[in-house]
Specification:
- The structure holds two protein chains of two kinds.
- Chain A is 30% helix and 19% strand.
- By secondary structure, chain A is an alpha/beta fold.
- Chain A has an eight-stranded mixed sheet, sandwiched between helices. Chain A has a three-stranded antiparallel sheet with strand order 8-9-10.
- Chain A starts with a helix and ends with a strand.
- Chain B is α/β, with parallel strands linked by helices.
- Helix content of chain B is 35%, strand content 20%.
- Chain B is built from 21 helices and 23 strands.
- A seven-stranded mixed sheet of chain B has the order 11-10-12-13-15-14-20, sandwiched between helices. In chain B, strands 3-4-2-5-6-7 form a six-stranded mixed sheet, sandwiched between helices. Chain B has a five-stranded parallel sheet with strand order 19-18-21-22-23, sandwiched between helices.
- In chain B, helix 1 packs parallel to helix 7.
- Chain B is globular and about 85 Å long.
- Classes of the chains: A alpha/beta, B alpha/beta.
- The interface between A and B is large, with 71 and 77 residues.
Chain lengths: 347, 657
């Protein structure tokens, strides 16, 4: 990336000419705006950026960016994104999805793109509701949720997206909030990761599930309900930074600092520790402050690179296949003219 | 040939020349019958015979040993003449156990050769095959009178011959297919070289098991010598080489040809093939074959399911390579929504449907043509695609190139409707020269100046603009597109225009399709119209009818949608049209709807190809105007009879196999 280009593109340059059609007040606006800023800041090339989405409110995202974009079908964006990366590994591919698209109809594909470690950044906008189909409960809606399809309350146990991503062998797992300052940081870290990156973004659907995440967004109380993760730093939280997380018999517990408990007694975050990441992913409101930031980040080989390596290895070992070698493959034999009865010969 | 021993004794032996022979190997699915059949095929190809094969194996990997369900068979028709089918009636059947005897004896011609491995005709095995206690068919006089029955204790002879091999009884037992093959090689006067070379390469070199290789070779030779010295057979058959076009050949299996065609298309277009697939019988061998071709730049992707496979292929096409996926009927059903996405986004895509018996899981290993209407219409909305069908194993190569060419040049999904019979059947294939393959010319949009995402050329094709191209950034998707700009658009008139454009674009593909030229008479009494894998049976039936002086002609469609532009006019030149299909009449429905022609059908839904005899009977009934009001007839028990058309649906009797 040349320096000239770095300075040329601004956030505005990443806006497409289409009117944004999300409901006024939707959390998606904040994410879109931050995304454009991050792309500009990182010096992304519009022509090399591809945004792929499935179906749902969040999946309209690609229409509003002046990059290449593909609004595919419900749940299948991971598969389309995988095909794009296999065909052209040099493209920067982002996948935008939601809790319905990514975890319900597309749950299977999400698991497989993560375990293959295809170099695609996946942003899952979690609003704990189906917005586009008008308010039914989603796989992340809380038990007992009353919606048009669950008038007596949902009897499904919700899924925790980050636990799922970790179990599926994701090499990068993070969480952030649509209106929180950590969104930009997390997006930047995500963009820098090589491999499948999975980010859950708490996003407010102000029409069908308003304030689902108010515990984590209300100015006065949020710092008591979230804990900001920093690599190699202790887990401290609270408006007055007077509380922390400690491991007791490998289980997390909330403790108050002082009264004999020092920072060194707390749990220190380690982005490379898969087990710790899983423990963190199980911490949920109201019992615990919910961790925000990068849970897990490790380097691992990408699927499309390994595939390309196999091709190069095969060419090294067997020579590059051509039309000539193709047509000459297998057990060939020559049949000469009919008169010549001795004409049979194996080639 | 080095390994063809000279007969020493056997002075009464007659050598009889035959123009063709239909040989079938049958045994338990663990008996190695597919390998024996394949070897007989390879040897016969190199000897210069024309040939056609029909493998027939159970869906279960190892059905209970010794049962009829577990029988695996391989039929091959070798000929000194041009042939198109694996043959109706079996001239020589080699069976390794009672279950195989039970499953296949009905297909042997009266007077035909039946070689049985009588070591295996034990009480226990007879019971497993479902014979009543106390009955052994090979001791039955009626059987002995009807066929030339040769009872040979293959298991025992093989074990004795290999007693010094140093291998255990189990490994020795595994060689008995080679013993049987050796015997059949002797009977049909074939050289052993090809198989010896194969055994040395496969067991000796590839698997580093030289001892196993040598033991198999010994079994093969022992079987051959047994035929020569035992003086059991009174006749030895000789099928001379066929008078086929001189040139360079190889034996080709349908799925192999299709894979090669896809790779050729990639080379001809300068694209990578990205083959995305989820394993499914009988399409999996496409994935296996292509996965071995990494050195051709082939990228294979075994997806997590059928939907992911087609979606990844679409992603690959969007990114500028040629996305291909292979599947069978159940998989095509799962891919329907995504194919619609490729239609509306107007991206190239090739989908191969290796058809099998349906509905649902159906008959995974048996052939059928019952996905045609699914291919045509099995999607939501008005959703036209191009539909092609190869007509022989070798034609799979040409059709794959044609499909990729149309998909990329017309920005449209193309469905290739092959079937289980073509996929695993084989024939000698005259290898085309590199120069005879036409390059696939492609144009990509590069200039932002006059770029319109859904602008169109004179063939109504939109530009293929690849991610990575500066200035052409655009968004596509499943929502209706606005004419020219490609933006999302819900206007009523725009939707109608776009629907018509998508339809017209596919119709215009017909402009590049050659007109049909009937085989036979230009104007006549009866036309047989077929498509896909039934070509060989129909062609043979038409040849025979014409040889008998009947005015019967043939048109076989390789392009089903759009159809060749002169088809309607051609159909009207014949007094009657008969459409044989391995379904209940899917092409017939299309033809009647499109051309208002009173086409009739002969329709077989047994998981097997047509017998030529069945078609001959249907031809005669058509020529005699005896179909009456019936739209179609079905063959039952190898015959098409008017009095046999009504099923008694209330009957509780099982249908005999």
């Amino acid at each position: 990336m040349s320096k000239a280009q770095l300075s040329v593109l601004t956030a505005k340059d990443f806006a497409s000419d289409q009117d944004v059609r999300w409901c006024p007040g939707c959390g998606d606006y904040a994410i879109l705006n931050q995304m454009k800023k991050v792309l500009a800041k990182l010096g992304a090339k519009r022509e090399d950026s591809v945004f792929v989405a499935g179906i749902g409110c969040s999946s309209r995202f690609p229409y509003y960016l002046n990059t290449y974009g593909f609004h595919t079908i419900h749940g299948r964006a991971p598969a389309v994104a995988t095909g794009i990366k296999i065909a052209n590994p040099s493209l920067d591919v982002w996948q935008i999805t939601g809790d319905g698209d990514g975890l319900s109809i597309g749950g299977n594909h999400l698991m497989h793109i993560l375990r293959r470690n295809v170099n695609v950044r996946i942003l899952l906008f979690n609003n704990r509701i189906y917005g586009l189909t008008k308010g039914q409960y989603s796989p992340t809606s809380e038990e007992g949720k009353k919606t048009p399809s669950t008038p007596m309350g949902s009897i499904d146990l919700p899924v925790t997206p980050l636990s799922l991503a970790l179990a599926a062998e994701a090499s990068f797992v993070a969480r952030c909030i649509d209106v929180d300052k950590n969104l930009v940081e997390v997006l930047e870290r995500t963009a820098a990761h090589k491999g499948s990156a999975f980010v859950e973004i708490y996003q407010d659907c102000n029409v069908f599930n308003h304030k689902a995440f108010s515990f984590a967004t209300d100015k006065d109380t949020k710092e008591d309900h979230i804990v900001r993760l920093e690599h190699n730093k202790p887990l401290i939280f609270g408006k007055n930074r007077d509380k922390g997380i400690r491991l007791h018999n490998s289980k997390p517990e909330v403790v108050e600092l002082g009264k004999g408990i020092k920072e060194d007694d707390l749990l220190f975050h380690d982005e490379h520790d898969e087990k710790l990441a899983f423990v963190l992913s199980r911490m949920s409101h109201p019992e615990f402050p919910e961790p925000m930031g990068v849970y897990y980040a490790v380097k691992d080989a990408c699927y499309e690179d390994l595939l390309q390596e196999q091709i190069e290895d095969a060419i090294k070992q067997r020579g590059e296949g051509t039309l000539e070698t193709l047509l000459d493959s297998g057990d060939t034999y020559i049949i000469e003219s009919e008169q010549d009865q001795h004409g049979l010969q194996k080639n | 040939m080095a390994c063809q021993p000279k007969p020493e004794s056997n002075t009464n032996l007659l050598s009889e020349a035959r123009t063709s022979a239909v040989v079938r190997f049958a045994g338990d699915s663990g008996d190695g019958m597919q390998l024996a059949g394949t070897q007989f095929t390879d040897t016969s190809a190199i000897v210069g015979n024309d040939l056609a094969t029909l493998p027939d194996y159970p869906a279960e990997i190892r059905a209970p040993a010794g049962t009829v369900a577990g029988v695996s068979g391989f039929q091959i028709n070798i000929s000194s003449e041009d042939i198109f089918t694996p043959g109706d009636q079996v001239n020589a059947l080699i069976v390794m156990n009672p279950a195989a005897f039970k499953a296949h004896i009905e297909d042997v011609e009266p007077g035909g050769i039946v070689v049985v491995n009588d070591s295996e005709f034990t009480k226990v095995n007879l019971r497993k095959a479902g014979y009543v206690d106390g009955y052994n068919p090979i001791e039955d006089d009626a059987v002995a009178q009807k066929f030339q029955l040769y009872k040979i204790p293959i298991t025992r002879l093989n074990a004795e011959a290999l007693a010094d091999s140093g291998l255990g009884a189990k490994e020795v037992g595994r060689c008995k297919n080679m013993y049987a093959l050796g015997l059949v090689y002797w009977l049909y006067d074939r050289p052993l070289d090809t198989t010896i070379e194969f055994l040395n390469n496969y067991f000796g070199k590839k698997k580093s098991l030289p001892k196993i290789a040598q033991t198999n070779i010994n079994a093969l030779k022992s079987g051959y010598y047994f035929g020569e010295t035992a003086e059991i057979f009174t006749v030895r058959y000789h099928v001379p080489r066929a008078a086929i076009t001189p040139g360079k050949y190889r034996k080709i299996i349908g799925n192999e040809a299709l894979a090669m065609g896809l790779v050729a298309a990639a080379k001809l277009s300068g694209k990578d093939i990205v083959y995305c697939s989820y394993p499914i019988t009988p399409a999996s061998t496409l994935l296996h074959t292509l996965a071995q071709m990494r050195h051709y730049g082939v990228k294979t992707f075994q997806a997590e399911d059928e939907i992911a496979a087609v979606c990844a292929a679409i992603g690959a096409s969007f990114a500028g390579q040629i996305g291909v996926c292979g599947t069978s009927g159940p998989g095509l059903a799962l891919k329907a929504e995504a194919i619609g996405l490729a239609v509306v986004t107007e991206l190239p895509l090739v989908v191969v449907d290796v058809q099998r018996g349906g509905p649902s899981t159906g008959l995974p290993t048996k052939t059928e043509q019952s996905d045609l209407l699914q291919a045509m219409f099995g999607r939501n909305g008005d959703c036209p695609v191009v539909v092609l069908a190869p007509q022989s194993p070798g034609d799979c190569f040409d059709i794959a190139i044609e499909a990729a060419r149309i998909a990329m040049q017309h920005m449209v999904p193309v469905l290739i409707m092959t079937d289980g019979y073509l996929a695993s059947g084989s024939e000698p294939w005259l290898i085309p020269s590199v120069d005879s393959l036409e390059p696939i010319q492609l144009r990509h949009a590069i200039d932002p100046e006059d770029f319109e995402v859904y602008g169109r050329d004179d063939r109504l094709v939109r530009p293929w603009a690849l991610p990575g191209t500066p200035g052409l950034e655009h968004r596509i998707g499943g929502l209706e597109k606005e004419h020219l700009t490609g933006n999302v658009n819900y206007e009523p008139e725009n939707h109608q225009l776009m629907t018509m454009l998508r339809r017209q674009k596919v119709e215009k593909v017909a402009e590049r399709i050659p007109p049909v030229e009937p085989y036979g008479d230009a104007i006549g009494e009866l036309l047989l119209l077929g498509w896909g894998g039934t070509f060989g049976s129909i062609h043979t039936a038409v040849q025979r009818a014409r040889a008998a002086g009947k005015s019967v002609s043939q048109v076989h469609l390789r392009h089903i949608h759009p159809m060749p532009s002169n088809l309607g006019e051609v159909l009207r030149r014949y007094k009657r049209v008969l459409i044989p299909e391995l379904n209940t009449g899917q092409l017939r429905m299309l033809v009647r709807a499109r051309f208002l022609v009173d086409a009739r059908g002969v329709n077989k839904i047994q998981g097997r190809p047509f017998l030529v005899e069945e078609l001959m009977e249907a031809i005669d009934l058509m020529l005699a105007d005896r179909f009456g009001p019936r739209e179609f007839l079905v063959p039952r028990h190898h015959s098409v009879r008017l009095e046999d058309q009504e099923y008694d649906y209330s009957s509780r009797e099982k249908v005999a196999t």
